Amino acid sequence: MAALAGETRTILYGFWLSSCTWRVRAALTVKQIPFEEKSIDIVKKRSQLTDEYRAVNPSQKVPALVIGKIPFKTDNIKYR
Ligand SMILES: N[C@@H](CCC(=O)N[C@@H](CS)C(=O)NCC(=O)O)C(=O)O
């Protein structure tokens, strides 16, 4: 856990063409949660298939949401 100490950033791994990413981006924005976004090109570069991204999200899909280095499942995120 020491490695997690001090890391509080919220990072959204996504892609501009991904509706799944837009859903999570909208939820974070509506809830006024500050976040950084890292682009994973799922179309041309197929970056979701890299080992580096697999370490972030084993399902190799976008989006992936990491809060303070802890990954969160995004499938059920709703903004209401
Ligand atoms: N259940 C996931 C589905 C994620 C998903 O299907 N993402 C698509 C983009 S919207 C994706 O990463 N496609 C790339 C691929 O399948 O290789 C969610 O709702 O977040």
From TrEMBL:
<dbReference type="Pfam" id="PF13409">
    <property type="entry name" value="GST_N_2"/>
</dbReference>
<dbReference type="GO" id="GO:0006749">
    <property type="term" value="P:glutathione metabolic process"/>
</dbReference>
<dbReference type="GO" id="GO:0016034">
    <property type="term" value="F:maleylacetoacetate isomerase activity"/>
</dbReference>
<dbReference type="GO" id="GO:0006559">
    <property type="term" value="P:L-phenylalanine catabolic process"/>
</dbReference>
<dbReference type="InterPro" id="IPR004045">
    <property type="entry name" value="Glutathione_S-Trfase_N"/>
</dbReference>
<feature type="domain" description="GST N-terminal">
    <location>
        <begin position="8"/>
        <end position="80"/>
    </location>
</feature>
<dbReference type="GO" id="GO:0004364">
    <property type="term" value="F:glutathione transferase activity"/>
</dbReference>
<dbReference type="InterPro" id="IPR036249">
    <property type="entry name" value="Thioredoxin-like_sf"/>
</dbReference>
<protein>
    <submittedName>
        <fullName>Jg8074 protein</fullName>
    </submittedName>
</protein>
